[in-house]
Amino acid sequence: MPKQSTGQKKTVERVMHEYKHGELKSGSGKNVKSRKQAIAIGLKEAGASKYESKSKNKRNLSHTKQKERRGQTAKQQKEGHR
Question: To 5 degrees, how large is the angle CA 21–CA 8–CA 60?
Answer without folding.
Answer: 95
